[in-house]
Each structure stands twice: as C-alpha cells, then as structure tokens.
Amino acid sequence: MSFSGLTVQLLNGLADASALFLLAAGLSLIFGVTRIVNFAHGSLYMLGAYVAWSLTERLSSVAGFWISMLLAALAVGALGATIELVLLRRMYRAPDLSQLLATFALTLIARDAALYLWGPEDLLGPRAPGLSGSVVILGRLFPQYNLLLIAIGPVVLIALRTLLAQTRWGVLVRAATQDREMVGALGVNQSILFTTVFALGAFLAGLGGALQLPREPASAGIDIAAIGDAFVVVVVGGMGSMPGAFIAALLICEIKALCIALGDWTTPFGLTIAFPHFTLVAEFAVMAVVLVLRPWGLLGRQQETARASAASTAPFTPAGSLTKWGAAIALAAVALLPFLVGGDSYILVLSIDICVGILFAASLHFIMGPGGMHSFGHAAYFGLGAYASALALRRADIPMELALALSPLGGALGALAFGWFCVRLSGVYLSMLTLAFGQIVWSIVYQWDAITGGSNGLIGIWPSARLASKSAYFHLTLALSVAGALLLRRILFSPFGYALRATRDSPLRSGAIGIDVRRIQWAAFIIAGTVCGLAGGLFAFSKGSISPETISVGRSVDGLVMVLLGGVETLSGPIVGAASYIVLQDVISRHMQYWRAALGMFMLLLVMAFPGGIVGALRHRFTRT
Amino acid sequence: MTLLAIDNLTKVFGGVRAVDGVSFSLEAGELLAMIGPNGAGKSTCFNMVNGQLAPDSGRIVLAGVDIGGLPPHDIWRRGVGRTFQVAATFSSMKAIENVQMALISRQSRIGRLWKPAARYAREEAQALLRRVGMAEQAERPCGVLAYGDVKRVELAIALAGAPKLLLMDEPTAGMAPGERNALMALTREIAHDSGVGVLFTEHSMDVVFGYADRIIVLARGRLIAQGDPRGVRNDPRVREVYFDARHRVIGASE
Fold it and tell me: pLDDT grade, residue A287 (50/70/90)?
C-alpha cells in the first residue's frame, strides 16, 4: 500500500468523522440534558437530507444551495422543537423505556412519512456549487467537498464549546447535564431549556443530513444506519461530552479508513485477510473495547443516580389455582387450533410466529424486567441459535431434531461471551454494549459468505419428515415455547430469580449479603441467551431459511416493543405483548400501505395511555390495593 | 478477644486524605461508636471494612485474617453484616423475603433454580423479624414501609448472616426517639449476649453516650481520641473539634 493512498484514505476518514460528529453531537447534547435516548435522531438526520434535496431542487442557484442546507437544518430543528413540545414533554417522568419506545415509534412514522412525501427511490442531490471538483493531493484526486467537511466538524465543535462555555444558556445546559434536579430546584425554567436543547440537537442532525446530500443520496434506509453510528460515537465519547463525541468520531472513522487502505493482506501462510470487511465491525469493536476499559466512555463521567427513585415494583405473587386452571384450559384450546382452522391455515403460520415471539420476548424480559438490564441486542442470541441450527443441518448434515437442540447452545455460548462484558456496565452504557454485540454478530454473519451465505443467508432449512406438516410443527413450537416460558417463570420464583431481582433492586445490599452481583447477572444473561437461542432455532425451521436481515437490530427492537407492550413489570407481560404485537403487525401490514406509521401511532398512543403495558393496565383496572 | 483490628488505614480521593492512618480495634461483644463531624471519614472507613472501597494502604484484620480489598460479598461470607446510612433493602420484595434472601445466601443456595425461594428458611426469617419488632409487617413490600421500619428490616437482614461483626452506619437516623432507644437496646442485647462486635456511627449524641461501650473520634480523616464515653466527653481535643466545627457552620450560614 502506498503512502499517498494511505494519506488520501485518512483524509477521507477526517471528512467522515466530521459528518459523524455532526450527527452524534446533537444526540449527545439531548441525552446529556434530558436523559432521553433519542432513537428518532437518525430520522431527523434522514429528514434533513430529504428536505435539503427538495429545497435544492427549487433553489438551484449557487447561493440557493447553501441557503437550502441551512433552511433544511432549521426546518428539522423546528420539527425537533415541535416533537419535544407535543410529545416528549409529557414523558420526562415516564420510565426510560417508554421514552425509548416513543422515540422509536417516531422513527416508524418518519420512515413512512418520507416514503409518502419523497417516494421509495434514492434521491441523488446536486454537487455543491464551487466544490464539485477535486484537488490533487500527493498525485491522487481528492474531492473538494470533503475538504469543506473536514473543516466543518471542528468549526461546529468550537461553536458548540463557545456556546456552552460563554452563554448563560450554555451554563444552564452544562449544569443540567451534571444535575438536572438541582437546576430545577434552583428555579430554572426547565421546559424552555429542554425545548431549546432538543431544537439545537435536531438542528445539528438536520445539518448533518443536509451536508451529506452531495456525497450520498437521500433514502429511507439511512435513519437506522445513522442512529446506530451515532449511538456508538456518543457512547465511546462519553454521554453528554462534545469533545468526547468528536474524538470518538475521529477514532472510529480513521480506523475504518485504515481498514480500507490496508486492503487485502495475505499472511505468509497463504491466508488472506480482507481488511475492508472489518469496517462494518470496526466501530462496534472500538466501542466494546472502550467500554470495558473506560465504562463511561473516553471523556464521560459516571452518571449520578436520580434521587427520585422510580416507583418500586410490586412483589411477585405465585399464580393462584384459578389462574393455573385458566391457563391450562387456554393452552389446551390453543393446542386444538390445527383441528379447528385446518392444517394449511395461515392462522397456524401466524400462531407459530407468536410462539417463537413469546419465547423470544420472555427471554428478553428475564434480563430486562427482573434483571433490570435493558438489552438492545437480544437479536444476537436469536441469530446465534438460528445459525447454529441452520449450519448444523446444512453444513454438517446433522439430523433436524439434533440441529434444533443445538440452537440453545448457540445462544448460550453467545451470552457467555457477551454477557461477561455487559455485566461490567449498567444503565444506558450496558444497553449500548448489548447493541454493539448484536451488530457484531450481524456483521459477521453478513460478511462471512463462505460459511453463513452472507446477505443471502441459508435456505432449505426444513424440519424432518415427521415434523414437516404445519400442525406438527405448530405443536412442537407450542410445546417448546410453553416449556421455555414456564421454566423462566419457575426460575424467577427460585432463589436465583430472587437474587437476580435483588441485584436490580439494590446492588449495594446484594453485595452486603454475599450475592456476587456480576456473577448472578452473567448467569442470567446465559439463561436468557439459551432460551432465546431456542427461539431462533424454531424460527429458522419454521421459515425454511435464515438471513442476516432477520437477526438485525430491527428484531432486537421488536423484542423490546413486545416486552414493553405487555408490561415489563409483569410476568405474563411478555406473553401478552408478543402475541398482540405480532397479530397487530400482521393485521396492519396486510391491510395498510403505510403500516409502519400506523404501528408507530399505535405505539405512541399506548405509551401515553398505558405506560405500564397491557397487563399493567389491566391489573391496575381490576385490582384495588 | 480482638475481633477487628484496623491498622494504619488510609484512603485518598484526589488530593483529599479521607481516611489518614487510622488504627483502632474492636473486641467481640463490644459496642464501639465512631463519631466525628461531617466529612471526618466515618463512611469511608465503613466502606473499606465492608469492601465497597479498597484501602490505599493499611490493614483490616478480621478474626486474624486481612480482609482489606476483598469484594463485599466475600467479606460478608467472613462474617461482616452491614446496615447503610440510607437503608438499602430490596424494595420489590416483602420484608420477610428480604430476610429470606440473606438466609438463602448464608446457606449458599443462591444458585438454586427450582424450589420457590419463598419456601426457604421461612421460620428463621420470621423469628428475625420478630426480634426487630417487624413480625406484623412481614408480608408487606419493603417499598411501601415507613423509613424507620425499613431500617429495622435492614437490621434483620444484617443479622441473618449470623455476623461476627456488625457495621451500622447511622442506625437510628430517621427514627422517632422511642424507636431509637428500642433499636439501640436491642443492638446492645445482641452484642452482649451473642458476642457480636458492633461498630456504629451516629449523629445523635444521646444514642452514642447512652449505648456505646467505647468511642473513637475521627476528624478530617484522623483518629483524634478514643476511650470510654466519660473520657471522650471530657477530652479537650474532642471538644475543640466539635465546638470548632459547629462554630464554622454557624459562621457560614450568616
């Protein structure tokens, strides 16, 4: 590899870092002050690109281009302020997870809004006037526009630093980042502070999206990719730290640039390592390393714990005999389903999906509810289970039953490795690390063509002859998911389950009565991973195939939605949540063109009206304590 | 018999020597009060003895074994029970379940996955709650109990580990005067009858001088005096520290 090639790649890395910083800075600022993890930040970025495209279409002069960029950012900033005023303002006292669900609902709505307004095609923006050419650097061409981007990052960083350091508003923002309650107690109007912070964060996201337009087309898919990248940068840099976000963006982009510059490298033993393949994993690998070494990010500080402790959850009560009989009768009725609807009915297909969903959601609930560890990457264990089965069947010709039995093992091994890292962190940082591991699994599956079939996945994963009929497979899935869910429930009532809850309620007290907090949490990860792996295996055989798409971050979020929909503080929540979410998704997606937006609206309604989930709301309605 | 021997214990935060070369010892069955103005290093001392913090230097010898720097769960297993300045209990569990957890842990059955936890050691847990006067409220979740009651449950939890040494950080803070005396009388009874060593901090001087067998005084991280209540009360250095500290506080509020 030549020196000039490396230099140009590193310069490209600088330009990418600037773009990434713009995206992440707003997210970090918003989190720092409002403590809201804004999933919709990627959508604001996407909208910035779309609005900029529309404006440049109309204002095609030289000045028009730059005005369009600015106007797009301002429009997105105004949208951000509106979102804060209309929606988030009502949610600052809600549990973190409801806020997350609400902002995720916004991404669904924004995605469909973009589809409705701008259509499904990628929209290529104009080149930046005056900067459309290239300069020659060390004999290689380098786009002029990238030089502008390289400059913009530091300029925005300095502007933000000045704003935060020199103005009264900035002082309040920094104070709120350190101690929100104290700022409120000192009589600062938090409403205005939060709205302006949200508007500024949205403005930065919109600007980032707009400025990206000359480099890559606006499309509806960039939101999720953008939010993933932004999360990583914010976490690596330290939540709420602007310079941290800048350094993190630089670190990640330069490592990626280096991977590209290195190209394929053949070891002396003839093995070829394709470094460009590492770019997908690079940022998540950086994040995993940083979080283990510096749990609060490069320049982050340990978060102070909120003084107003959340309303404590009620103790578990074992099911009464009435509930037990009711559940047994309901289960028997469900088992008769194939005889009622016929062996080829679509209802059976849907029911299999529901059973898989229940197992998936119950395993996530296990670490999320009683464990208090909010995993954003539960798809990892699902995927490892699914691929363990699929690979055993396709590559090793192991019989289907045995291959399915390997799926829990796949999930367990993943949780064994990832859990060890995750339990060293807590709160948002833990969530982000689980997200990183989920993405790492996804990237490996996506890239490792020779084994996993890459983006096409693996096909021909069908059950053995005696399980081939829909009704037989339905019965298998039903039996295993009921067994799995009951097992998890049993464990939650056992000493281990209580110990897990103890680590959530008070790590301090747990340690002081001899509970090794990390070990209990790690074991919980492994148990959840095992059950989740089984869900993955059942899923693969029910579809006949498995692909990276089915184990992407979308599945992790589905799991979160199921658990929250049912109610995270209830034991039957994940079951009710999974069933209703899958049915809802199915009904809406079959009958409506813009089903994502409809689902998003529904989710918003739900978190506003029933913050405790379906089961929580029912319990509240029917019990008086 | 010397139960706990602290030797030249030191902990530095940034440039502040929060605990600076402190040495003292505690006999089995003795009630030792640790007093001192705010910021004297009392809680830091406690946190090192129970493993929340690792000492920078010095030794913490419990029954002949140096336990300095071990994690809290290890130290608990060696016989150290603790109550916290802000009571720490499991708020989503009933009072009795809180005590049962500690008993299950003592029996090394935390890892059991099958038999419901509620069936473990119920009688013993109930007996412990009775001892601290919480038997009637055994079935109520800790999250809804009054603060004084939570503190009593916390004591029951700490006793469930059958400790040799009991660390109590402001055991009576937030309690009514009658409750305070009942709790301290109980603590003294436990110490004297079962030979448990009790190290406690307390801001209420009535409690300290009414119940402690011996008192040690910290100021700015250093041990400045120790002895029986009468001796400490008359010690000029102690008077100076307390008088001086009060004086400065009054000055600051003006």
Answer: confident
DSSP string, A60-114: -SHHHHHHHHHHHHHHHHHHHHHHHHHTGGGGTTS-HHHHHHHHHHHHHHHHHHH
Confidence label for B254 from pLDDT (cuts 50, 70 and 90): very low
Window 498-557 of A, Cβ < 8 Å to B = 498-499, 501-502, 504-506, 508-517, 520, 523
Contact B72 A511 (CB under 8 A): yes
The gap between the terminal CA atoms of chain B, to the nearest Å, is 49
DSSP A226-249: HHHHHHHHHHHH-TT-HHHHHHHH
ipTM above 0.95, yes or no: no
- Say what the pLDDT of residue A135 is: 84
CB atoms within 10 A of CB B141: 20
Interface test with B, best of A509, A510, A518 (most B CBs within 10 A): A509
| pTM of the predicted model as reported, rounded to 2 decimal places | 0.88
Whether B187 shows a pLDDT value over 90: the answer reads: yes
Answer whether B92 touches A (CB < 8 Å). Answer: yes
A625 shares contact with chain B (CB less than 8 Å): no
Domain ranges of chain B: 1-79+199-226
Predicted confidence (pLDDT) at residue B114 exceeds the cutoff of 80 = yes
> Which positions ≥6 away from A174 have C-beta within 8 Å?
A164
The model's confidence at residue A474, banded by pLDDT at 50, 70 and 90, is: very high
Q: Convert A113-149 to b/e letters by CB count within 10 Å (16 or more is b).
A: bbeeebeeeebebbbbeebeeeeeeeeeebbebbbbb
B90 and chain A in contact, CB less than 8 A: yes
Q: Do residue A508 and residue B52 have CB atoms under 8 angstroms apart?
A: yes
Please judge whether A315 and B93 are an interchain contact, meaning their C-beta atoms are less than 8 angstroms apart.
yes
Q: For the structural domain made of A3-250, what CATH number should be given?
A: 1.10.3470
Strand partners, B225: B217
| pLDDT score at A461 | 93
pLDDT of residue A312: 58
Question: Looking at residue A481, what is its pLDDT?
Answer: 96
Give me the pLDDT at residue B247, please: 47
B84 touches chain A (CB under 8 A): yes
Q: Where in chain A do CATH 1.10.3470 domains reside?
A: 3-250
Q: Per the CB < 8 Å rule, is B115 touching A506? A: no
Domain B1-79+199-226 sits in which CATH superfamily? P-loop containing nucleotide triphosphate hydrolases (3.40.50.300)
